[in-house]
Amino acid sequence: EQGYKAWLQYTLKNDKQKDYYSSYLRVITYHQESEVIDAATKELSRAVKGMLGISPEIKKSSIDEQSEGVLLTLNSHTSKAYQSFNKELDRYQIEQMGKQIIISSNSDKGILYGVFHLLRIIQSDESIEGLLITEKPRNQLRMINQWDNMDGSIERGYAGSSIFYQDNQFIGDEERVEDYARLLSSVGINAISINNVNVHKVETTLITDLLPEVKKTAAIFRKYGITLFLSINYSSPIEIGGLTTADPLDQDVQAWWAEAAKNIYTQIPDFGGFVVKADSEHRPGPFTYGRDHTDGANMLAEALKPHGGIVIWRCFVYNCLQDWRDRKTDRARAAYDHFHPLDGQFADNVILQVKNGPMDFQVREPVSPLIGALKKTNHLLELQVTQEYTGQQKHLCYLVPQWKEVLDFDTYANGEGTEIHNIIAGDVYDYQYSGLAAVSNIGADLNWTGHDLAQANLYGYGRLCWNPTLDMQELTLEWIHQTFGKSDRLVDSLLKIMLQSWETYEKYTAPLGVGWMVNPHHHYGPNVDGYEYSVWGTYHYADRDGVGVDRTMETGTGYTEQYYKPNADIYNSLTKCPDELILFFHHVPYTHQLQSGKTVIQTIYDTHFEGVEDVKALLDEWLSMEGEIDEQRFKAISQRLSDQFEHSKQWRDMINTYFYRKSGIKDEQDRLIY
Ligand code: BDP
């Protein structure tokens, strides 16, 4: 096994169970026809062949006819639900009655989700006796963002080149794209943007000349209930439209976008809409014309509105040409400062997409104060599945524990109990659209994600989109069972390895929430001062006396004020601020005593030594599992983990030596080599 099938292995180890399941799965009957139902029957049949070695009979029957086996049926005939992002239409029921399993839903998409759920149960070797499950997603939009460029590269991609593009053309490998759609749909993803948010010249034409190719791609995803979006270049009217301006208030510009939208919808009637990175990191946007984000987003929204389309406008907007000497300008403040004053001014079909932290996907950041503060504006939480700052899929870093913390964070926006997961589910404020989006971690590598274990991040992301309150351990076990089987030894060890890996990674990399001690540009490996004296706004301010960024209200950047109380007070207070974020919020002497009782400097030393030991333990645990899984994946993972071990030592030594030299304070246990 080379990992291609990921969690859709469709093998059953336990022979005894085969007869039992076969008695339910010999026949697949469906009542109504649609391409999604067709995909559902094909998936079932493929799985049954793989797991049970039989080819099920597939037949259409009328509603009153008696049938046996698995029955797929729509409660009503509202089968075209793609573009609507309606949680009620995604709801499904699985019920065992006699020798029949009935999967019913209000939409064909729901039936497909039900089929994947049933297969999850069978792959995990669980009983189907007495099954009665009703499921509905907590989140309306469950989106994946590809950062693929048409030259075949992937921005922040760590698993080979793009599966969509090569040499500025579509590859047209329908099978591969369809297999990706299957993986996404199996965990409930319902939207995808297929090109990088940084849109270059060639991708600008995706909305015009390249539309026939986009249309083909949309057709593949449509079968799996996934709506296609495109990232657009804000300057398109200039770049490809022959206009001299992209000013959102200019009538020719408005007409240009309206016409572009009309053309897109003629070809792709259920097109999702545009993802926009504007006025950020040198991307064009409304600022050039003295307009603001509402002008920019609402103009595009107007163009898409007649067709039911959406504008997803990213809030990753900050000054990337900052002066590191000026502590008053704080990049962490930027998203809130830009967008909070505009709350309530965006059109109904605009969604603001907010990164989970105020900086940029570091291993540890506080939760963005903007989420929860936008009470009258649709928004999506943005996560990064691709491991840009978390080991680039060379290191194991299972991100579900991090995301769980984000989702469970209580913002207090509407009093106690206003957790992030409630806000983005649309349970707190009356949003028209909300949910999650995340940057994908897949590429053309045969196992999709480079590191086989990084598949778990994609799986976990999808499952948390569906239900953010899923128990972390259960979710991880689901993935292990389907991907590797149920051998007790393997399951216990792998569960332990996965659940510890984020904390382990955090220990040997940048300490106490400070972030950014990575090599500039590619962001892999340690470099304590790599970004310290540059323009990006990413500093740690380490000197001989202390380290950390003062973001307090009294003496610092005032960032803490962006939170609701009591979070604002907790973060602002040197004694109450959680240890793991202390350097994010405070500049402290090395001898400052943390809540743990240790000093900052000793904590830096200790965590870095521990981190490396943890990787060693993780590697040993994995190596002891030889024979429990197929050799190919075992070897590939072993190699990555042993590389991680070597690299973690480099992190440890560089960070520790740096802080010893800055502070002159020795390690209490005298372990440093300098
Ligand atoms: C940063 C990445 C950069 C992306 C940017 C973004 O380093 O490649 O373009 O985020 O989200 O994390 O737009």
TrEMBL record:
EC numbers for this chain: 3.2.1.131
GO BP terms, alphabetized: glucuronoxylan catabolic process
One Pfam entry name: Glyco_hydro_67N
Glycosyl hydrolase family 67 C-terminal domain segment(s): 449-671
Positions of the Glycosyl hydrolase family 67 catalytic domain: 122-448
Domain named Alpha glucuronidase N-terminal: residues: 6-118
Catalytic activity, reaction form: Hydrolysis of (1->2)-alpha-D-(4-O-methyl)glucuronosyl links in the main chain of hardwood xylans
Keyword GTP-binding: no
InterPro entries found in the cross-reference section: A-glucoronidase_C_sf (IPR037054), GH (IPR017853), Glyco_hydro_67_aGlcAse (IPR011395), Glyco_hydro_67_aGlcAse_N (IPR005154), Glyco_hydro_67_C (IPR011099), Glyco_hydro_67_cat (IPR011100), Hex-like_dom2 (IPR029018)
Top-level enzyme category: hydrolase
Keyword vocabulary terms for this entry: Carbohydrate metabolism, Glycosidase, Hydrolase, Polysaccharide degradation, Xylan degradation
GO function terms (MF aspect): alpha-glucuronidase activity; xylan alpha-1,2-glucuronosidase activity
GO cellular component, one term: extracellular region
Catalytic residue positions: E281 (proton donor), D360 (proton acceptor), E388 (proton acceptor)
Assembly behavior: Homodimer.
Family assignment from sequence similarity: Belongs to the glycosyl hydrolase 67 family.
The name this protein goes by in its record: Xylan alpha-1,2-glucuronidase
Protein's organism: Lederbergia lenta (Bacillus lentus)
Classification of source organism: Bacteria, Bacillati, Bacillota, Bacilli, Bacillales
Record gene name: aguA
